[in-house]
Amino acid sequence: MFLSILESFGEAFAALRDNPMAIAALIILLGGIVFLISLRKVKLTPQLMAKIAMAVALSAVLNNIILYKMPQGGSVTLASVLPIIILSYAYGPEVGMLTGFLFGIVNLFMGPYIVHPIQTLLDYPIPFMLIGVSGFFSNRFAGAVAAHIMRLIPHVLSGVVFFAEYAPEGMQTGSALWIYSITYNAPFLLGEMAIILAVLAFVPWNRLLKAVNPGYKVPVK
C-alpha cells in the first residue's frame, strides 16, 4: 500500500515536471481561490487551516474506499466529498472550494493522468472545488445535489475535449459525443450523490456544524 502511494506520487511529479503549463494552471486557479477568500474577508487562521487539512485527509481516506470503479476513470466511493460539504456549510462556500481544490490536488497525486493542462484542471481540482458550491444553499440536500451537478460539468467537458477516442465508434463527434460523455460520467456521480444524501439524512446536521465551527449560527426556521 505504502509503496503504491509512493509510486503514484512519483508518477505525478514526473507528469507535472513534463507539463509545466499544468503546474502554472494549478497555481493560477489556487491564486484565484485565495483572492476570492480575501475578498470575502475569510480569515485563514491556523485552527481553520488545520481543519481544512483534516478534511482533505479524511476525504483522501474515504476516496480510497472504492465501491465501484469505472473502466476509464471515475469511481463511486464512500462519501469522499462529505468533509468538503461539511466545511462548506460550517465556514462558507469559499472555504469549501479551497478544501475541494486541495483534495483535488491530493487526488491528482494519488492517481495521475495528465494529457493537457486544461484536462488536469477539469479532471482534478475543478470538480472537487465545485463541491464547495453546496455552501451557497441553506438546505443541505439541495446543496449536495447542486454540487454534484456542478461537478459533473467539468468531467463531461474533459470527456468531450480530451477523451473522444474512447467513445464507441459513431459517437466520437457532435452531439453523440456529448451524450456519451454524460452517460459515462453521470452514473458514478449519481452513485456518489445517493450515498451523500443518505448520510446527510441521518447525521445530526446542526450539531455537527456547531462541533466543527463553534461560531456557526444555526438558521432560524
Automatic annotation (TrEMBL):
Keywords: Membrane, Transmembrane, Transmembrane helix. InterPro entries: Thia_Transptr_ThiT. GO terms for molecular function: thiamine transmembrane transporter activity. It comes from the Bacteria. The chain crosses the membrane at residues 20-39, 48-67, 73-91, 98-118, 149-166, 178-203. Pfam families: Thia_YuaJ. GO terms for cellular component: plasma membrane. This is Proton-coupled thiamine transporter YuaJ.
